[in-house]
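Exercise (ungraded).
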Amino acid sequence: MGVGIEVINLNAWYGNNHTLQDINLHIPANHATALIGPSGCGKSTFVRCLNRMHETNPIGRVTGTVRIGGLDIYQDANPVEIRRRVGMVFQRPNPFPTMSIYDNVAAGLKLNGYSNRRSLDEIVERSLRRSALWDEVKDDLKKKSGASLSGGQQQRLCIARALAVDPEVLLMDEPASALDPVSTSKIEDLVFQLKSQYTIVIVTHNMQQAARVAEKTGFFLNGRMVEFDSTHKIFTNPSDKRTEDYITGRFG
Amino acid sequence: MLNSEVESEPRAGLKPSPGQNPETAAAPEVSPVRGFLLSRGNSAIADAGFRWLMVFSGLSIFGIVGLIVWQLALRSQLSWQKFGFSFFYRSYVDSVTHQRIFWDPVSGHFSALPFIYGTLVSSFLALLISVPLAVGLAIFLTEMCPQALRGALAFLTELLAAIPSVIYGLWGIFVLVPLLRVYVNPFLIRWLGWTGLFSGDNPTGLGFLAAGVILAIMILPIISSLTREVMTAVPQSQREAVLALGATRWEMIRMGVLRNARVGMMGAIILGLGRALGETMAVTMVIGNTPEIHASLLSNGSSMAAVIANEFTEAVSDMHLSALIEIGLALFIVTVIVNALAQLLMWAVTRGAPATAR
Amino acid sequence: MNAETFPLRPSMPPSQRFSMRSWMRGWTDRAVSALAILATLIVITPLVAIFVYLIYKGAKSLNLAFFTHIPNPPGEPGGGMANAILGSGIVLAVSSAIGVPIGIGGGVFLAEFGRGSKLANAVRFTADVLNGVPSIVMGLAAYALVVVPQKHFSALSGGVALGIMMIPTVCRTTEEMLLMVPHAVREAALGLGVPNWRSVLSITVRTASPGIITGCMLAFARVAGETAPLLFTALGNSFWSASLNQPIEALPLQIYVFAISPYGDWHRLAWAGALVLIVLIVLAVALVRFVTSRGVLKGTS
């Protein structure tokens, strides 16, 4: 089951570039939360701070507090442990090119030393079913490489890979931006299905997508969070002028 | 468990309401998978250990250079203390034969001068022969060659670079040297003998010329492939800009390509020189191995690398060994300087390319 | 471009001026093209000559005995280079055991940990420079490091000399191959909570492994033909020996000794040995070319 995320005074830098400034928000458990905003506004950086991926960049720096299910991830935990609890789906599908479909899904467990073959089989099937890919790949799980699938299938494979480690939070960084409309709608349906069990944070620059899948929406602009509220409120009656300008398409 | 509820082909934009979703069934508090992952440590120690192992491997390169310098300096102390810097230019005149002698292990006279001379002569001869050919080949490959032929020719030059030195030497002894002796040398003596560079008192066919030719063949692929690399790096727009002015192909190559690539080509040539200076086996097999200095390119000589290869295992006196190691140290220092220079020039062209490539 | 190319001056019939220049330029262009083609032919000739002659001479002398017998004393026909082949194998095994792990480790350092840092640039630069250091100097270093303390020539010292030579080559190819692995693949592994060491070894290095293996093979082929560093380390041995502590024969060493000997039988053996060596190297180079041209990583987006 998912857990809530509490962000207090989060700041992030790329080199001298102050990409996130004083972010405060509370992301509810077992719901989908969308983050919207023009490109370069810091929303991707923000989700990368939630599983400490931001600091893998040599010039990336973070200050502030992030609590996931009560655990302060920058104080009380190691990045590796955090990332096992917080799954991530990236903008471009990135299956491991040398691995089969099966190995891709099992990678998070196998590479962490999990070796029970029977239960691995079960987990792989369950994860692929949850990501709605099972029926399409069940016949050549170990024959085909992950890279041989289509773009949309690859992205669902990546979702299955993230689900296989049974995360509490699922971060999705524009998961459909590189996909065609049909694949995009499949991903959206998936988010809709999954959000009852996982806390999902989805970054998108597609406002309709946010409106379709998320209960809560945050609007980012120039490294600051302008507004965070229920999706309905954001899209119908935003309290900030800048949010309204963005929603109505006056910029971005 | 919870599965198979996801529709495989729902219509786009249609969203089922949460109430209809049966997946809200209770999940276990902590799944076995989660429990397992939580039980795994954070691997901080393994990560740090791995990182240091890799850093150590990287640093071992410095260690190797340090060890080489230290050991060679240590083992050449004897000769350095006795001769000092004059080791590189001294000579003495034999009291009986009144001949100038540089290197005589029996009487304990050691001077690196004839070997330095031989190394320089054979290397520059090699550059003289190979640079025009290599540049011509590179121009042909980048600017004129049909696509199909290009791969094959590039492969052939790569092979040329991969042939071991000893096989060049073998070929040199049995093919090149007889060829020079029978056909080329008499021709050179007859028509160019007046220059003093080709005098005919060496009947073997060995000597500086043979070494230079072999070296030229050996360094050609390096110069050519690096030249090709820097020429390919010249942006296509440069070529088109010159062509658009109505230039012929040669003018385009001269102004659009060679002018832009000259720094890199210099680097390629210097890198080739570095290889030629240190090349051992092929030179040893065809240069004749006599520690003498002659103006004639057809006479026997020796080179720094050749004398080490030739005499090291037979050296009995400590001074002899020490002198040979000192020659090795000098060769090391010279080739390091030459290679560093070449690398800097090449880096100036493809600045940072390997480091920032993603 | 020269402004005079264009017929601007009225004092001369424009068309004539233009065509003269144009003719000259066209002629120069053709001459240079011809020279470039000539240069190519001159370069290709010795290569073809070496290969044809090598195959002709080598194939004539190559037989089963070459692979099963040790060389006969001068004057007795027949014999082979079996001990040299075994010796080369042993020396190369030692050198690979030294050069491959350290080289790959250095490459991993350059590509994964030191990217862009001053230290990594210094290591890269030193590796490139070390690559150009003459092999005979490496032999001297191994002599000073191993032979002098041991007080005798040995297979071990030969392996050390060749191993040191392999490190910079393996290191740089490994780095280049690792840099070809898309960053997204690394992120995917890290995002799963895989420990860094595991992610580097099981994901990045494994993805780049075809390239790394061929790079190692290239380094292997290169040192397999090295003679100079073995002259006063492995020394040579006319008899069977598999001991690391004894002088040992190696194929290139044997070719050298036989080539400068005055005996026809030994010359024939030298040619046969050269053929064996070159076949090994051509295979390695062709494999490397095949792998790199096909793209090391298939299907990465």
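Further reading is listed at the end of the chapter. For now, observe: Chain B has a mean pLDDT of 84. The first strand of chain B starts at residue 92 and ends at 93.
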